[in-house]
Amino acid sequence: MAEEVRSADTALNADWGCILRNIVKRWWMILLAAVTAASGAYILAAEFYRPTYSATATYVVSNRGNSTTVYSNLNAASELAAVFTDILNSNVLKERVEAETGMELDATIRATLLPDTNLLDLKVTADGPEKAFFIIRSLIENHGIITSKVMENAVLQVLKAPRVPTVPDVALDNYDIAQKAALIAAAIAACIVGIRYLQEHTGSRA
User: Is the model's pTM score more than 0.70?
Assistant: First the structure.
């Protein structure tokens, strides 16, 4: 027990200046760890990066009838928004879009009602810009085969037509990833060097 207390006192009273000098002395080990980690992180980030692209369209939803009001339009939009995403992902519409575009419909399709408006955003996210565009365009042209039956009183008009996305949703920043990996690796290496020095000199003094 006395030896453990004495060992702890020795560690607490260690010459931290010597520890820091030892870390600086072994700068090449820390640099090597940082470079290795940065290189690995840079390569892995590029290897596993899978960009996605989103094409969007905006609808104006109004209530069919002679006496439409702001309230009726908002109500129609709210009711349609509740089922529109399910409609767009239905098997019937999926088969129609796949047959028309010749593409597998493995995209994410989502409809969102803009708060306190009768505007409905349609968003298609796919693994390629052209794919996202062709799918959303086909959805716009064909969703009426279902919406006209499910929501007979709702009228959808395209306010903003979709465009081919030119940039991915999330850009690859492997330089930033490499820098963070290098800093973490350097810090870990410095800690290991310091702990090894402390263990060696604590053991020799004990």
Answer: no
